[in-house]
């Protein structure tokens, strides 16, 4: 009997008519107070008195009355808080059922699994169930039901997100594939939210910020520990929070669009009130990342504002500003600039040049230029904004600190790290004074300073500022927060720069632990954290640990991103490198039963080097779906290797089929040389400065043999490349990129090859690599400008690359390989 009761509690639900009947009974027995009664009140005053004699659940009474009419297989699991008003909760259930009926989503009737009805309220049976029951049977039951209805109130700070058991029900819903989670609010809460959307849209976005399931509490501490551990080992708190936020966001957007359409249906779509509503809706869309939809609402409001206020209306200027910001977000920078110009003209005329709002537009004006890489122009607008804000608001104002940060970011983009640091320090001083030392925004500026110092090569200063950021983040946001994890990563990177791999490992492992707890094990960011630890383990000589971590990263990438994603390929490449390294160690290590081989002859060493280098070319070509250019490079290498032993270069190995083709190639080369004459002087100056920089950083200059094209038949070249590659474990990559010049900042197409511990580049694949970047000097390799540029920072300079029309590799591929090579070179 007990088994049957348990089964009914897990699988059955009550009908819509049963809910209506219960609500009518409440109204009949408590006409004056039923609207204020909580679920707990209804339990004590109605459910328990009716079920006490039979010591049963309320659903058992319904079965006796009419089991087929009132009880059936549950289709919706209801998650709610018992402190809610019972009438509100039941009305939400009825409204939800009506929605399903109108939409005809399911021909089957709705039956609610509602704990007030399904559990025996005379005896707390669930209190004695083991934790395994909750993590298996209960979770599977929700999966079988297939849908969770989450009743949330108040909308500003929903109670269920503060109760551990409500949290558990939400978790069981979102962690089961195929289970749908729906969020609903009572009518009173819907009206309050709609008013907030119309009057104070920031209150809506603030609500989403407050969605933090980690705050949940339980009466029994052991229950909380069990629930939190299950969430951390499953989807993670970040995914849980995001699922709730996504539902709230979708609900908010639906209500906003409905409000706009309602005014349009009433014929009020030409009024100032309609324009104001569209502006508010656009602002919320923008905050939610729906920038295209935001633009549509702004553009709907703009002609109405122009007609009702005139060309110089304050709301007109605000709409131009908002459109400029939205177009910046969508990457339409010229349109953004056009709208900022209009906003600025109105504000200067109406408010004057020296007004905080005018300064705000000047600051916005710099953003599209910053994204376009026109950093000097961005700085000009930022500095104008700064001058006005300093005069009108004062230099010690949070808005002023924001501008200092923007200026610092622009200088950092220009690789002028000294100036960037100066601006970040000014921002920090203002934030400490106005917001306090222990504020997340202050910590963020500490982090900015740390990154700039790292790129400048000042690793101790980078670590010092990262530690300050870490301390504040831990105190204000907690240990288990993405900002805290990111700060540990930054510290680990700086320790790698100092070759302090032990501390670097500690930082990376802490970042991994936090990322896994907050985002869950099955998240791409968690995979990246595993990969970083694995690579560092390999560099430290622990091959088995490295393999374990990187295999875990690869498994997560495969499950979340798929086999063709650059991160998945990067992890696969890392595993190949580890396997190659392990085989190399096994082959080279003598055993007590097998004496070490005698020293091989130079010719044998040369042959081995060529074979190994060839294998590396082949493996890289397979991983990157070898392009025609890479195949040609491979063939040229094969031709060179074939003639190494004879010491004679056969013209037939150049790849030309006839003298006529050779003449055509020579003519093309002459034309290219004429086009490059004007570049020579600049490149020679670059080379001289690079050599000076190498001398200043204490790095030995690279021999010219390492700059020789691998297809040139030079024995020293292939051997040197192989030896250095084995030393640094650098991924061989080759392809076309566009490289920005140092002086005139124009981008020119270059054939780039990453090998031998260097990034080599020349004007064509068949030409000798005339320039190089030693990976041992690389401080960072980052994707910027919406991932359209790769910035490779070395002491005193940042190299900037873009994809070429002929590029087959992504900038992420280049970045990943450079990072791996740079880590191995240090």
UniProtKB/TrEMBL annotation:
Keywords, ordered alphabetically: Repeat, TPR repeat
Biased composition (Low complexity): 594-607
A Pfam family annotated for this UniProt entry: PH
InterPro entries, per database record: PH-like_dom_sf, PH_domain, TPR-like_helical_dom_sf, TPR_rpt
Region span, Disordered: 581-607, 646-718
Highest rank taxon of the organism: Eukaryota
Stated name of the protein: Mbre TPR repeat protein
């Amino acid at each position: 009997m007990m088994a049957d009761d348990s089964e009914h509690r897990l699988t059955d639900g009550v009908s819509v008519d049963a809910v209506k009947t219960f609500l009518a009974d409440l109204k009949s027995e408590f006409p004056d107070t039923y609207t204020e009664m909580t679920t707990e009140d209804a339990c004590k005053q109605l459910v328990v008195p009716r079920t006490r004699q039979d010591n049963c659940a309320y659903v058992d009474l319904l079965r006796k009355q009419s089991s087929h009419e009132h009880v059936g297989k549950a289709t919706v699991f209801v998650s709610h808080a018992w402190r809610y008003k019972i009438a509100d909760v039941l009305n939400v259930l009825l409204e939800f059922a009506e929605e399903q009926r109108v939409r005809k989503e399911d021909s089957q009737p709705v039956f609610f699994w509602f704990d007030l009805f399904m559990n025996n309220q005379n005896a707390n049976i669930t209190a004695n169930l083991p934790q395994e029951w909750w993590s298996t049977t209960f979770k599977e039951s929700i999966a079988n039901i297939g849908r969770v209805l989450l009743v949330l109130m108040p909308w500003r700070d929903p109670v269920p997100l503060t109760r551990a058991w409500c949290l558990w029900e939400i978790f069981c819903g979102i962690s089961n594939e195929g289970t749908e989670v729906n969020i609903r609010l009572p009518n009173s809460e819907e009206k309050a939210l709609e008013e907030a959307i119309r009057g104070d849209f920031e209150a809506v976005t603030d609500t989403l910020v407050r969605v933090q399931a980690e705050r949940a509490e339980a009466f029994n501490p052991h229950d909380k520990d069990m629930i939190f551990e299950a969430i951390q080992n499953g989807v993670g708190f970040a995914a849980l929070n995001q699922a709730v936020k996504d539902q709230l966001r979708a609900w908010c957007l639906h209500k906003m669009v409905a409000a706009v359409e309602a005014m349009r249906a009433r014929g009020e779509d030409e009024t100032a009130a309609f324009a104001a509503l569209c502006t508010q809706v656009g602002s919320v869309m923008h905050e939610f990342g729906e920038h295209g939809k935001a633009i549509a609402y702004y553009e709907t409001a703009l002609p109405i504002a122009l007609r009702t206020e005139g060309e110089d209306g304050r709301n007109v200027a605000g709409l131009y500003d908002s459109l400029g910001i939205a177009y910046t977000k969508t990457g339409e920078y010229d349109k953004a600039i056009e709208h900022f110009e209009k906003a600025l003209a109105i504000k200067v005329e109406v408010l004057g040049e020296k007004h905080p709002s005018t300064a705000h537009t000047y600051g916005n004006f710099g953003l599209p230029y910053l994204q376009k890489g026109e950093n000097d122009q961005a700085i000009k607008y930022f500095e104008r904004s700064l001058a006005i804000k300093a005069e009108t608001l004062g230099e010690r104002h949070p808005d002023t600190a924001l501008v200092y940060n923007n200026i610092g970011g622009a200088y950092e983009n220009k690789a002028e790290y000294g100036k960037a640091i100066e601006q970040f320090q000014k921002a920090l001083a203002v934030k400490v004074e106005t917001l306090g030392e222990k504020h997340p925004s202050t910590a963020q500026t500490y982090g900015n300073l740390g990154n700039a110092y790292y790129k400048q090569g000042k690793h101790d200063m980078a670590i010092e500022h990262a530690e300050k950021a870490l301390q504040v983040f831990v105190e204000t946001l907690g240990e288990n927060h993405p900002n805290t994890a990111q700060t540990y990563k930054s510290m680990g990177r700086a320790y790698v720069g100092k070759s302090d791999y032990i501390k670097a490992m500690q930082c990376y492992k802490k970042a991994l632990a936090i990322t896994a707890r907050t985002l869950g094990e099955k998240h791409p960011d968690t995979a990246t954290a595993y990969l970083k630890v694995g690579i560092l383990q390999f560099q430290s000589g622990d091959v088995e640990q490295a393999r374990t971590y990187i295999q875990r990263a690869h498994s997560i990438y495969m499950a979340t991103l798929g086999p063709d994603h650059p991160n998945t390929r990067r992890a696969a490449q890392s595993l190949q490198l580890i396997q190659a390294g392990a085989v190399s160690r096994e082959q080279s290590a003598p055993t007590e039963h097998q004496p070490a081989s005698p020293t091989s002859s130079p010719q044998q060493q040369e042959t081995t080097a060529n074979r190994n280098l060839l294998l590396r070319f082949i493996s890289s070509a397979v991983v990157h779906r070898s392009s025609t250019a890479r195949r040609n490079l491979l063939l040229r290498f094969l031709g060179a290797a074939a003639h190494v032993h004879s010491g004679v270069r056969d013209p037939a190995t150049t790849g030309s089929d006839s003298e006529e083709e050779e003449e055509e190639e020579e003519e093309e080369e002459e034309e290219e040389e004429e086009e490059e004459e004007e570049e020579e002087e600049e490149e020679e100056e670059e080379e001289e400065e690079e050599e000076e920089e190498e001398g200043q950083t204490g790095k030995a200059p690279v021999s010219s043999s390492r700059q020789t094209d691998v297809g040139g038949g030079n024995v020293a070249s292939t051997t040197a490349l192989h030896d250095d590659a084995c030393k640094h474990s650098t991924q061989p990559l080759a392809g076309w990129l566009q490289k920005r010049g140092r002086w005139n900042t124009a981008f020119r197409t270059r054939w780039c090859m990453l090998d031998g511990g260097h990034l080599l580049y020349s004007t064509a694949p068949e030409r000798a690599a005339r320039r190089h970047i030693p990976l041992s000097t690389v401080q960072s390799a980052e994707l910027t400008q919406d991932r359209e540029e790769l910035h490779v920072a070395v002491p005193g300079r940042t190299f900037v690359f873009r994809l070429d029309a002929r590029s087959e590799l992504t900038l992420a591929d280049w970045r990943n390989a450079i990072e791996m090579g740079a880590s191995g070179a240090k």
